[in-house]
Each structure stands twice: as structure tokens, then as C-alpha cells.
Specification:
Keywords: Membrane, Transmembrane, Transmembrane helix
Helix content: over 70%
Radius of gyration: 20 Å
Structural class: mainly alpha
Strand content: under 5%
Length: 252
């Protein structure tokens, strides 16, 4: 019964989104703390140079959560896998690399551009989920990875090509080169790395589904390797975010 609960199709987050409140609060703290360091470097008023980008950036975090949760339903992840992917994708948006965070908070145009593109990604994802196309791969692990990452990566590639064309013409000023960095990060990085961090749960879900399919109750010989992989990914996640925090506090 417990196995059936964990491997139900479309296992989106069924629990109250406590993680969402925590992540939004953390994102606000990170951005307020960074603004306290860079406020003297910001041009213009406090609203246009600090508070407006901050609010737009927090809205982008909220939208990232929504998109990630929708992708887990489309990929039919287990409940634990859906939670891992949604939380990790949002957390990657909460604590981006320092250069990305600086660009986001230094210009309201950059934050607004990212928010608009995420809105378009959310609409495209809703359309993609309604189509229910034939899966590219029959094996569930690559199929789920494809459904988690294909649309975000496609949108990031399309935006990069459009920006490159406009920049060569040139239609946009030189500062548009900075905006594309934050846009491509928001479209591709959180979901791609989030999918990698979710891979142990995809493997576990596949093993459990295979066991149920063959009606076997015997111990899976690959369980020990899966546990080791879970631990290794957890260590990698912890190392990544510890490095991020270290870089944040290293900057005077």
C-alpha cells in the first residue's frame, strides 16, 4: 500500500505547500541582504533600483514553483520525486549564482523580462500538458527526464537565438546582453539541474513500478546502489548550496 502511494501516476505535491512559504521567505531574505550590500551602487531611486526588481524577482520564484509543479504532473512523478523536483528547481531560483542575482537586482528591466518569459513558459507548459503527445522514449526514466526538461530547454534555446538575431541587427542596446543572461538562467538552469537532483527518485520510482508490474515482493538487488546514489546526490546538493552561501557572504 505504501509503495502504491509513492508511485501513483501524476504524483504532484499533495501536501500543503509549506516549502513554498519557506522558499519565498528565504528568497526575500537573500535579496534584501544582497540589496543591503549593493544599494550604494544602484542608480536611480530606491523603488526603480532596488524594491521593484526585488518584487519582480520574488514573483519569478513563485512562478518557478508553479511551472515546476506542473512539469511533475506532466512527467507523472511520484509524490517524493515531485517534491524534490519542485523544491530544488525553486531553490535554484531562490539562490542563483552571485552574478545572476546581481543582474536581477540591479535592473528592473532584467527582472521584468525574466518574469514575462516565465509567464510564457507557464502558458506553453499548460498547452503541452493538454496535448498528451506520444512519448519519445518508452523507458520511463528518460521519458520523465525529457518531459521535465525539454520545454524549458527549448524555450531557452529559442530565446537565445532571438536575442542573438536582435543583437546582431542591432535592435537592442548593448545592455541587452546582460538581460539575456538572466533570462536564459531562469528558463533553463533551475529545471535542468532540478531534474538531475531528482534522478534518484526517478530510479526508485522505476524500480517500484517494475516490482509492482511483475508482482514481485522480493528484495531488489539494486536497492543498495540506489541508496548510495541518493546519498551522493544529497551531498552534491548540500555542497552546491554551501558554496553559494559562502560566495554570498564572501562579497563585502
Amino acid at each position: 500500500m505504501n509503495m502504491m502511494k509513492r508511485t501513483g501516476a501524476g504524483g504532484s505535491l499533495r501536501r500543503p505547500p509549506i516549502w513554498l512559504v519557506v522558499l519565498l521567505t528565504l528568497g526575500l531574505i537573500v535579496r534584501l541582504g544582497w540589496l543591503a550590500f549593493v544599494q550604494d551602487r544602484l542608480n536611480g531611486s530606491l523603488w526603480s533600483g532596488g524594491l521593484l526588481p526585488l518584487l519582480l524577482s520574488v514573483l519569478s520564484i513563485l512562478l518557478t514553483w508553479h511551472i515546476a509543479a506542473s512539469l511533475t504532473r506532466y512527467a507523472e512523478l511520484s509524490e517524493r520525486g515531485a517534491e524534490r523536483f519542485t523544491v530544488m528547481s525553486t531553490l535554484l531560483m531562490v539562490a542563483p549564482p552571485l552574478a545572476i542575482l546581481t543582474l536581477q537586482l540591479s535592473s528592473w528591466l532584467s527582472s521584468a523580462s525574466t518574469l514575462v518569459l516565465l509567464m510564457l513558459l507557464a502558458l506553453l507548459q499548460r498547452w503541452q500538458q493538454s496535448r498528451r503527445s506520444v512519448p519519445t522514449w518508452q523507458h520511463p526514466i528518460p521519458r520523465r527526464l525529457y518531459r521535465l526538461t525539454s520545454l524549458p530547454l527549448f524555450c531557452a534555446t529559442l530565446v537565445a537565438l532571438l536575442y542573438a538575431g536582435f543583437y546582431v541587427l542591432p535592435v537592442f542596446p548593448h545592455t541587452s546582453g546582460l538581460i539575456i543572461i538572466t533570462d536564459l538562467f531562469a528558463l533553463g538552469w533551475p529545471y535542468t539541474i532540478g531534474a538531475f537532483f531528482t534522478l534518484p527518485y526517478l530510479i526508485t520510482q522505476y524500480r517500484q513500478e517494475r516490482t509492482l508490474l511483475h508482482n514481485r515482493q522480493i528484495s531488489d538487488p539494486g536497492t543498495s546502489a540506489t541508496v548510495v546514489f541518493h546519498v551522493a546526490v544529497l551531498i552534491l546538493i548540500g555542497t552546491y548550496f554551501i558554496i553559494q552561501l559562502y560566495i554570498y557572504f564572501l562579497i563585502p
